[in-house]
Amino acid sequence: MKEYNVAILGATGAVGIRMVDQLANSTVPVKSLKLLASAHSAGKVMDFNGEKITVEETTPESFDGVDLVLASAGGAASKKFLPEAVKRGAVCVDNTSAFRMDPEVPLVVPEVNPEQLKNHKGIIANPNCSTIQMVVALAPVFKKYGLKQVIVSTYQAASGAGQSALNEFYQQAKDYLEGKQMSADILPTAGDKKHYPLAFNLLPQIDVFEDEGYTHEEWKMIHETKKIMLNDMDATDLKVTATCVRVPVPISHGESVYFEVEDKSATAEDIKKTISDAAGVTLQDDPDHQVYPQPLNAEGKRETFAGRIRPDQENKGCFNMWVVADNLLKGAAWNTVENAERLVDEDLVKVPKNYYQK
Ligand SMILES: NC(=O)c1ccc[n+]([C@@H]2O[C@H](COP(=O)([O-])OP(=O)(O)OC[C@H]3O[C@@H](n4cnc5c(N)ncnc54)[C@H](OP(=O)(O)O)[C@@H]3O)[C@@H](O)[C@H]2O)c1
């Protein structure tokens, strides 16, 4: 069996440490593994399948001899290093937003659009965490009944902003309970002018504000959904709008998803059956026994959970649904490794001659 030299870029981050674990529990045959980060973590030792591996500072030469890169070190590091890795013959699955909207880069959720993998030119993008869990739940409905519009409100966990944001949130909660002043230096978003505590609070801002009062996270949900489901980031035949909110939960995002199908004969029972038959999504929908998806139960699981599916009483063909998934696993590390498994299965771990060169 063919084996691969793999590198994980950003191996010490909230997503990266889970990539190491997901890779160890995957079908990807690993010949060697390099763990890469910034100078800050160089020398740290991490475990992979019982093997102790020392984290190295990333340079372009780090990718010499590497076949497959799983990247999660932020957009700037991906833009700097992934073209270098591709030039050296490595296929990269990138978890950052650096290449997601590039028409030359497939944006892939294996349960939804795996056929796009074969179009890669060396880089495959992993969608944003909040988009992934929504499309995993909606895609089977879209394929069977068609979709006209989606209105989503998210309830996103602190860890979605990285390990340092999660640490800040825990410290705020501790300080608040001890009657101390809470301080905030990261959330709602590291690069913005003001910072607010998340503990015992809600922050209706994820990432920076862009056109017409939408945040970049909301913009990503709209256009990534269209690119994944219709292969066109600006498609107008599916209408999508989003409100993204950071909530004081450590891990796993929740989403209230309102959607309208094209086939008006579809009932809530049809929608539930379609979702329960689909890959990667588990139906947890039993109001009589108070069964519905919750962040605490989703943490550490690879699948997406859907429930509270019910018809809009006044608009036929419209439904409400509640979706939860571990943002660090299905929203990031597992989707990346799952894409890598598919690339291996389909013998696509090779860089084509017309490789990505921007
Ligand atoms: N958290 C989520 O739920 C989630 C979901 C989907 C996508 N993402 C995306 O995934 C990426 C990483 O997120 P995260 O939450 O894991 O962040 P994080 O906890 O802050 O970790 C960042 C990682 O990147 C490394 N790094 C930073 N700058 C680097 C550089 N210049 N060169 C090499 N390595 C560098 C860090 O290494 P050091 O230890 O040396 O600092 C660390 O390993 C981001 O682009 C994020 O938007 C995150």
Overview in brief:
The chain is α/β, with parallel strands linked by helices and 358 residues long.
Q: Which class of secondary structure composition applies to the elements?
A: alpha/beta
Average of per-residue pLDDT values: 97
Largest sheet: 6 strands, parallel
Counted by DSSP, the helix tally is 8
In percent, how helical is the residue content? 25-40%
Roughly how many Å apart are the termini? 33 Å
Strand content: 15-25%
Number of domains: 2
What Rg, in angstroms, do the CA atoms define?
20 Å
In the predicted model, the low-confidence regions spanning at least 5 consecutive residues are none
EC number: 1.2.1.11
Binding site for NADP(+): 12-15, 159-160, 327
Domain Semialdehyde dehydrogenase NAD-binding: 5-120
Organism: Apilactobacillus apisilvae
